[in-house]
Design brief:
Radius of gyration: 19 Å
Shape: globular
Structural class: mainly beta
Largest sheet: 7 strands, antiparallel
Helix content: under 10%
Distance between the termini: 36 Å
Number of helices: 3
Number of domains: 1
Strand order of the largest sheet: 1-22-19-24-17-14-13
């Protein structure tokens, strides 16, 4: 998993240990993500399937794409499709992914890069592996997170952010047992590069066997932990968590994670993504690629799409 790393964790800024008055976040639930297929047939895990949307708020869904070793000719992506009313965050840990949209955004991301697309008032976009990966095959592993927009920002102008792995804030624990990558938001006073409409934080952490991570977290935010690979425990009561499982955390000042003392050879560390944000607490009407506040707004989005208001596929 070659997302951005460093050879010597001891050179990184250290997270502070929880203070005497800091409260750990309890674990409300642990669920296992079902597997399926998306787009033209790439495998995904629906990371938050079965979790109440009120506990996810301001997030809508998250897919783990792969981890899969493609043979030549097998890599697949999506066709051109519309979005309105939310943001998509695509984080690639292995492999390469191309993106284009009808408002001029786009680029190629690989090995720790992130594409942050604000659909806002509406656009068309396409995501696919580059031709070189299609021809050669290879490892592919990534995430796509959908972040809701508040009513006041749903019809904002589309925006595209290309976040390189070298821009991510890198931190470690007091004993240098974990690598914490801050992609967006702030952790312990260290800011990630992603700019968000909805106040939120997104972190990818690698926890070495037997090590523990006590991650400070904004009190007003919810907290969701998803295990990408490996196994360990979460929370003060050490609830087991393993690859493909998500934990919903309760209120508190920080959350605790620990990696099992032994891991599988192909997953040498406990790899987790932790996200949290300030709940929007507005009505939600979600149908396919449109996330609005009412059914009428969703219908209007379909009508706007059909009359070409979202633009046209690049090259069409």
């Amino acid at each position: 998993m070659p997302a951005i790393t460093v050879d010597d964790l001891t050179v990184l800024p250290r997270l502070s240990s929880p203070g005497l008055g800091d409260q750990p976040r309890p674990v409300w639930s642990v669920t296992t993500a079902p597997q399926g297929y998306e787009g033209e047939g790439f495998p995904v895990r629906r990371a938050f399937a079965g979790i109440d949307l009120r506990q996810l708020d301001p997030f809508i869904m998250m897919d783990q794409m792969g981890e899969v070793e493609y043979a030549p000719g097998e890599p697949k992506g999506t066709s051109w499709h519309p979005h309105r009313g939310f943001e998509t965050v695509t984080y690639i840990m292995d492999g390469t992914f191309d993106h284009q949209d009808s408002h001029g955004g786009g680029g190629t991301i690989t090995n720790g890069d992130t594409q942050w697309m604000t659909a806002g008032s509406g656009l068309l976009h396409i995501e696919a592996p580059p031709e070189s990966l299609v021809q050669s095959g290879g490892l592919f592993h990534g995430l796509q997170l959908w972040v809701n927009l508040p009513r006041a920002a749903k019809m904002s102008a589309p925006r595209y952010q290309d976040l390189r792995s070298t821009d991510v804030a890198l931190l470690t624990t007091p004993d240098a047992g974990a690598l914490v990558r801050v992609i967006a938001g702030s952790v312990g006073g260290h800011d990630g590069p992603g700019a968000t409409y909805t106040p939120m934080t997104m972190v990818h952490a690698s926890i070495e066997p037997g090590a523990r991570l006590e991650l400070p977290w904004t009190v007003e935010f919810n907290a969701l932990v998803y295990a990408l690979s490996g196994r360990g425990t979460v929370g003060v009561d050490d609830r087991p968590i393993a690859a493909g499982q998500a934990a919903v955390m309760g209120a508190g000042d920080y959350l605790g994670l620990a990696a099992a003392g032994s891991q599988e050879s192909r997953s040498p560390a406990l790899e987790v993504v932790v996200i949290g944000g300030q709940p929007i607490r507005e009505p939600l009407a979600w149908a396919g690629p449109f996330v609005m506040n009412s059914k009428d707004e969703v219908l209007a989005a379909y009508q706007d799409f059909q009359r070409g208001a979202f633009g046209h596929p690049v090259g069409a």
